[in-house]
Task: inverse folding
């Protein structure tokens, strides 16, 4: 297998064109990945799963397939709705048989740049992550055996798998197709991207003031940094502490470390104006609530991140910060093989 | 014990507890300091000879002294050097590292050194040769592919202008001409210059009058520079490599959120394409493949550790491969002009050596091959097409010196004595503890070509022992004591790059960030209730100020905000600040080049103590950033430095009066601290010195085809 790539265009955003020579049985594949302004040209894609249009198209179809769930009621897209910036606007998602999930569905934009997956980081790769919800009893509630049996029996899926992989469905190919699609879900070309590329008029004066608070007194860039506005790290901000105990142990459920109790992965702030409610449990309804929460230094608890402390923001600083978050971080969402949309 | 006799300290420092072997190491440090800081080679050789004569039972010490002696002889151009190295090889079989070093030096002596006036000697095989030495060598330049020209920043003759040196003739030519219209030197300077493959252009970072960095390009034939990339959202940038066809420059951007990015900039239109955002870490070196399709760079995979690996990324961003993945430190040196191998430095065998790794289509093929052992931690300049690898070797050191004061006059009563140590690290920015029993300083390895201190050390005057504080900081500067001496406050950045003042508890090692970034030079009152610091607002053009922080409430209060404030010193009684101001326009239009003012810590109008209209008076560093300033222990005088590079210590009565010399002269004094008993000064001084060397005829490195400007990738 040989991967050949070239870049089209000199100005940002760029198109990265990859042509893939695979087994002779597979249709000739070429995919132009659109890199919106503000995102890195390099996205870590496993060499074992290069992006191809056939896989992306198959992944998109699987992403929207309700028949992957135990009662054919929900798909990945149910909780990651592209019209809601790939969230579902609920504190907790509703899965099969109307079962509520444990945590809020995070947006999937730019997850191709992620280093760990799920709120608690229990998946190391996107390929590993995408299979999780299928067997989660509160989400799709199915078994991989059932899902694969369905995909093998459906002639259109059988053809699509064969087109994408030169072979039928199995768990690895299912995960690779879904992960390929998720890697195409992007958000960029937002006002903040134009501003940081030197267009001083791209955000309002109030948002510019908010940006200085974001980077300075508000200490937001302690965690929300880089093109995805996330350090991909885990932090206890006190949301999971009810005053007496942790109602969700977060990262510590995997690591067993006391310091990780109540710690969750830093979410992206891209598209934040469209992804309410906020925090891993959807407990804060508005960005004003979020700003107030952090201004108070989070919620004191035995494992509170040492970076959390009362900010003592003035009212105008809070308003500026909220304005920056609302006005600056929503841009163009791209997904699959479709053209990017505002 | 509140007070410790300085005699005890001097005993500790000078006699090192009376142990003879330690005495020898003390002497070795003195000799190195004589050689590298003072440049007094003959005196240094005399001390090395004394060590060889008096400490012959300590074979490691004697062998080290002999190697150092050989180096000093080399610098003098003396014929003694080969004999000294031969003696090490013959008599010290139990010192393999020093034998290797002696062999390496001997081998290089057997090759004729390129000089500034002669032509290139005949190429006689793989060898090392010194290309350029002396005070004008800069560590941030690069080589043309024909090996003839070296771009560099001329700090000494041109105050930071970009220049090119012809290595065959020694001729130097200034390329930029920073604005020198005013009486005070312009703050502009060039950094990190990179020559295009055909030698026709130089890309460089330019620090502007507005105190921003931008990337510029200038023809080596002269003319006006062109701004290639300028963006106030990019806080700092560093061009690192030209593509072989001269169409792209690979660079690193430091963004205002603290992250770094690997970018490629199109030379034709200045368009920047972000290849990868590298959070708080960044590459030190980038090199293009010969076909221009890939870049190699080094990067620390673990954010808490400094060890680097080497990666190769497609220039279109389509893939990245970790080609050198080793638990120890691997640093990129360059891409062979032949195109099929990478050169890198690694300490995988215990000492830093140069290795080569075959790379094809952006992937490693085979295992690394040792090219040259024991090269030290060198900084890459680049390859010539002929297969010579050029690098920077750091030879200068910074150290802390103690000077005894005559009690009756307050003038120097002794020559500066370097603070000896056995930790193998440079010491800088030293300050006495409130009780005078300990000395706190920053430290960094003596090897390597740059970088800020990353460790703090505390020397106990009682025991002579040195405590090294473990820090979760990327760098640390301006260490200061808390009022009670139980903790240390220093400016630095954590592993995420979050800058600010940090407090480190000496008993527990716990660290907390006291302030956000943009705050420098902390100074605590004796009661520990107030912390003063210098604040440089993030907004360009905003007035810097000195702030008092109430350590109980966390409230900040501006003591004074003055244009040109560059530093300050807190009086021993905590009642006054001595402020150093850079140039300003005085009433009537006259230019004041530098000034010292006094202001009450309670606030109010400052009182001018000293004014100079000589722009070089208060330029202790080349860019006139700040001077060393402090109070005498009794608060009767302000001590300050004057001069550029070669600095002198002066004093002026705090009540007003005439300034006078104290009697101390050292290269670039950067900090002065008065012992609480008033009898001794600790002075941080010295600056890095560099040499340009070449590994000639690196096996298999020579280009297979002649480079052409229009070569297609």
Result:
């Amino acid at each position: 297998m040989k991967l050949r790539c070239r870049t089209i265009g000199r100005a940002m955003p760029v198109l990265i064109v990859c042509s893939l020579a695979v087994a002779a049985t597979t249709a000739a594949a070429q995919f132009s990945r659109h890199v919106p302004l503000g995102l890195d040209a390099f996205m870590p894609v496993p060499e074992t799963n290069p992006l191809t249009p056939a896989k992306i198209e198959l992944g998109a179809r699987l992403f929207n397939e309700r028949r992957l769930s135990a009662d054919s009621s929900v798909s990945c897209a149910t909780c990651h709705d592209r019209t809601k910036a790939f969230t579902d606007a609920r504190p907790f998602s509703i899965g099969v048989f109307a079962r509520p999930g444990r945590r809020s569905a995070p947006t999937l934009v730019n997850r191709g740049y992620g280093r760990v997956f799920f709120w608690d980081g229990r998946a190391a790769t996107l390929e590993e992550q995408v299979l999780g919800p299928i067997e989660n009893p509160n989400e799709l509630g199915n078994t991989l055996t059932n899902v694969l049996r369905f995909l093998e029996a459906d002639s259109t899926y059988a053809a699509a798998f064969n087109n994408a992989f030169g072979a039928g469905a199995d768990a690895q190919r299912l995960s690779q197709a879904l992960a390929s699609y998720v890697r195409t879900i992007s958000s960029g070309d937002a006002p903040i991207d134009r501003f940081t590329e030197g267009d001083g008029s791209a955000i309002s004066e109030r948002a510019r003031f908010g940006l200085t608070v974001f980077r300075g007194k508000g200490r937001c860039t302690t965690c929300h940094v880089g093109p995805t506005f996330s350090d991909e790290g885990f932090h206890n901000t006190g949301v999971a502490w009810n005053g007496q105990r942790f109602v969700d142990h977060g990262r510590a459920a995997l690591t067993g470390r006391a310091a990780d109790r109540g710690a969750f992965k830093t979410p992206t702030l891209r598209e934040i104006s469209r992804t309410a409610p906020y925090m891993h449990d959807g407990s804060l309804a508005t960005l004003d609530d979020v700003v107030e929460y952090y201004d108070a230094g989070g919620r004191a608890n035995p494992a509170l991140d040492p970076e959390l402390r009362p900010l003592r923001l003035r009212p105008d600083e809070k308003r500026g910060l909220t304005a920056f978050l609302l006005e600056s971080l929503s841009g163009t969402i791209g997904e699959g093989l479709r053209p990017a949309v505002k | 014990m509140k007070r410790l006799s300085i005699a005890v300290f001097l005993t500790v420092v000078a006699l090192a507890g009376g142990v003879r072997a330690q005495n020898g190491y003390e002497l070795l440090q003195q000799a190195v300091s004589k050689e590298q800081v003072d440049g007094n080679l003959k005196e240094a050789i005399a001390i090395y000879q004394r060590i060889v004569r008096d400490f012959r039972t300590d074979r490691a010490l004697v062998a080290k002294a002999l190697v150092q002696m050989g180096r000093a002889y080399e610098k003098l151009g003396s014929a003694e050097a080969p004999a000294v190295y031969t003696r090490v090889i013959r008599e010290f079989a139990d010192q393999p590292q020093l034998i290797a070093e002696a062999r390496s030096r001997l081998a290089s002596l057997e090759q004729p050194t390129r000089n500034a006036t002669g032509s290139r000697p005949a190429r006689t095989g793989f060898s090392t040769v010194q290309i350029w030495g002396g005070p004008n060598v800069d560590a941030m330049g690069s080589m043309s592919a024909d090996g003839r020209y070296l771009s560099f920043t001329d700090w000494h003759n041109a105050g930071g202008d970009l220049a090119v040196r012809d290595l065959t003739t020694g001729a130097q030519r200034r390329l930029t001409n920073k604005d020198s219209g005013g009486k005070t030197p312009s703050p502009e300077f060039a950094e990190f210059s990179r020559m295009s493959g055909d030698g026709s252009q130089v890309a460089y970072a330019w620090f502007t009058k507005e105190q921003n960095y931008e990337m510029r390009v200038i023809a080596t034939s002269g003319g006006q520079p062109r701004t290639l990339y300028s963006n106030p959202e990019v806080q700092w940038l560093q061009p690192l490599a030209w593509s072989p066809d001269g169409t792209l420059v690979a660079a690193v951007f430091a963004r205002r959120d603290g992250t770094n990015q690997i970018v490629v900039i199109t030379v034709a239109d200045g368009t920047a394409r972000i290849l990868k955002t590298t959070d708080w870490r960044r590459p030190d070196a980038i090199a293009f493949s010969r076909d221009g399709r890939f870049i190699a760079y080094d990067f620390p995979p673990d954010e808490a550790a400094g060890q680097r690996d080497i990666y190769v990324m497609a220039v279109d961003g389509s893939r990245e491969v970790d080609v050198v993945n080793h638990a120890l430190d691997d640093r990129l040196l360059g891409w062979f002009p032949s195109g099929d191998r990478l050169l890198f430095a690694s300490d995988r065998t215990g000492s830093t050596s140069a290795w080569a790794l075959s790379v094809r289509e952006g992937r490693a093929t085979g295992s690394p091959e040792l090219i040259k052992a024991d090269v030290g931690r060198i900084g890459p300049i680049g390859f010539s097409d002929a297969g010579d690898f050029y690098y920077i070797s750091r030879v200068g050191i910074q150290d802390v010196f103690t000077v005894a004061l005559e009690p009756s006059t307050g003038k120097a009563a002794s020559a500066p004595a370097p603070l000896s140590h056995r930790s193998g690290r440079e010491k800088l920015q030293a300050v006495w503890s409130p009780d005078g029993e300990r000395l706190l300083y920053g430290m960094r390895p003596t090897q390597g070509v740059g970088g800020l201190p990353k460790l703090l050390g505390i020397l106990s005057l009682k025991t002579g022992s040195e405590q090294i504080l473990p820090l979760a900081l990327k760098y640390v500067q301006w260490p200061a004591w808390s009022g009670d001496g139980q903790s240390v406050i220093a400016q630095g950045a954590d592993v995420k790059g979050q800058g600010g003042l940090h407090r480190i508890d000496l008993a527990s090692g716990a660290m907390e960030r006291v302030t956000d970034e943009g705050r420098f030079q902390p100074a605590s009152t004796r009661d520990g209730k107030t912390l003063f610091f210098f604040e440089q607002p993030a907004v360009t053009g905003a007035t810097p100020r000195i702030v008092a922080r109430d350590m109980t409430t966390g409230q900040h209060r501006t003591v004074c905000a003055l244009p040109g404030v560059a530093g300050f010193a807190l009086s021993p009684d905590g009642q006054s600040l001595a402020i150093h101001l850079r140039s300003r326009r005085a009433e009537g239009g006259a230019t004041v080049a530098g000034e010292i003012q006094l202001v009450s810590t309670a606030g109010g109008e400052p009182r001018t103590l000293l004014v100079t209209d000589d722009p070089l008076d208060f330029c202790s560093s080349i860019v006139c950033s700040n001077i060393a300033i402090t109070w005498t222990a009794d608060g009767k005088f302000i001590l300050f430095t004057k001069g550029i590079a070669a600095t002198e210590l002066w004093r002026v009565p705090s009540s007003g009066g005439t300034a006078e010399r104290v009697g101390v002269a050292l290269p670039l004094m950067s900090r002065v601290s008065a012992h609480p008993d008033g009898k001794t000064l600790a002075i941080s001084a010295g600056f890095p010195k560099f040499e340009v060397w070449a590994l000639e005829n690196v096996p298999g490195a020579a280009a297979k085809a002649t480079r052409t400007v229009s070569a297609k990738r």
User: Anything to note?
Assistant: The radius of gyration of chain B is 26 Å. Residues 20-38 of chain B form the longest helix (19 residues). Chain B has seven helices and 51 strands.
